[in-house]
Design goal:
Blueprint lengths: L2 E7 L3 H15 L4 E3 L6 E6 L1 H10 L8 E6 L9 E2 L3 H10 L4 E13 L4 E6 L2 E5 L5 E7 L2 E14 L7 H4 L11 E9 L12 E4 L3 E6 L6 E4 L2 E3 L4 E16 L6 H9 L4
Parallel strand pairs: 1-2, 1-3, 3-4, 4-5
Antiparallel strand pairs: 6-7, 6-16, 8-10, 8-14, 9-10, 9-13, 10-11, 11-12, 13-16, 14-15
This protein binds nicotinamide-adenine-dinucleotide.
Function: Involved in the regulation of the intracellular balance of NAD and NADP, and is a key enzyme in the biosynthesis of NADP. Catalyzes specifically the phosphorylation on 2'-hydroxyl of the adenosine moiety of NAD to yield NADP.
Family: Belongs to the NAD kinase family.
Cofactor: a divalent metal cation
Length: about 270
């Protein structure tokens, strides 16, 4: 059986060098083939942002594709392999049995004033913000109005996205084996008149969040590194997706070791 491999890379000089080396090593293996269309395995070369781009490119065929990241900068959260490990990586691809580890994704439905719905998946998070004006939104959890939010915005993240933007706004780091999403506030207004919960919340996989926008004008809606055309958006609904992202598990790094390596250890 030949394993069909797609490669996605950023334009950094180092990534281009790694790409050339990887192509050479893959060409020496009869059971590994580089393809432009319908890959079974996608190898990214670059950083977490490169893997996020690859995820969005193949988000329509997540059940058929596994991902694997080679990093050419610092150790990433989605990028396990270092450039000097390419021979070991290619050998492990030849020997592997198609095993994978999978993580939860966010399912997002953006509804416009004309009733049109746009559907997205996020690997890290989605944020809703407003430029210089206060964002006002009613936050529903399931059908119940939970709070009226006023402030800079909201972040809704996956467990693997909990170490990204979510962490910067004071959200908790969540182990990716927990099938849940996290709602975190971005600079909420809390005083004698306005009140929000004021702390991040972990929402279960059987629940959903509905954010009904009450502030007028344009809002900034992001999905991972993508900006969504958000004119006339009236609500955004979030739940844990039925789909999951599958990573080729040729090597397994303990999650808390990775967190320590990224945020605590001084090398
Ligand atoms: P990028 O590769 O430049 O990513 C930006 C930084 O976020 C990098 O240091 C990357 O390693 C880190 N990162 C991305 N996903 C991560 C994760 N799951 N856990 C820990 N760190 C992670 O590329 P980009 O295309 O700009 O990436 C978009 C992502 O960057 C967004 O999804 C968002 O989470 C993150 N981001 C964070 C902040 C912030 O922390 N203030 C601001 C903007 C974007």
């Amino acid at each position: 059986m030949v394993l069909r491999i797609g490669i996605i890379h950023n334009q950094e000089e180092k990534s281009i060098r790694v790409l050339q080396r990887l192509r050479g090593l893959l060409a020496m293996k009869d059971d590994l083939e580089i393809v432009d269309r319908d890959p079974q395995l996608v190898i990214t070369i670059g950083g977490d942002g490169t893997l996020l781009s690859a995820f969005h490119r193949y988000s329509h065929r997540l059940n058929e594709v596994r991902f694997l990241g080679v990093h050419t900068g610092h150790l990433g959260f989605y990028t396990d392999w270092r450039d000097y490990e390419l021979p070991e990586l290619v050998n492990s691809l030849s020997d592997e049995q198609g095993t994978s580890v999978s993580y939860p994704l966010l399912d997002i439905v953006v509804t416009s004033a004309n009733g049109q719905h746009q559907h997205f998946l996020a690997l890290n998070e989605s944020t809703i913000r407003k430029g210089s004006r206060t964002m006002v939104a009613d936050v529903y959890i399931k059908e119940e109005l939970f709070e009226r939010f006023r402030g800079d915005g909201l972040s809704i993240s996956t467990p693997t996205g909990s170490t990204a933007y979510n962490k910067s706004v004071g959200g908790a780091v969540v182990h990716p084996s927990i099938n849940a999403m996290q709602l975190a506030e971005i600079a909420s207004l809390n005083n004698r008149v306005f009140r929000t919960l004021g702390s991040p919340s972990i929402i279960g996989s059987h629940e959903w969040i509905d954010v009904q926008l009450k502030s007028s004008g344009e809002h900034l809606i992001t999905i991972d590194q993508l900006d969504i055309n958000s004119k006339e958006v009236v609500s955004i609904k979030y739940k844990i997706a039925d789909e999951r992202i599958h990573f080729a598990s040729y090597r397994h790094m303990h999650f808390w070791h990775r967190v320590k390596d990224a945020f605590i250890r001084e090398d």
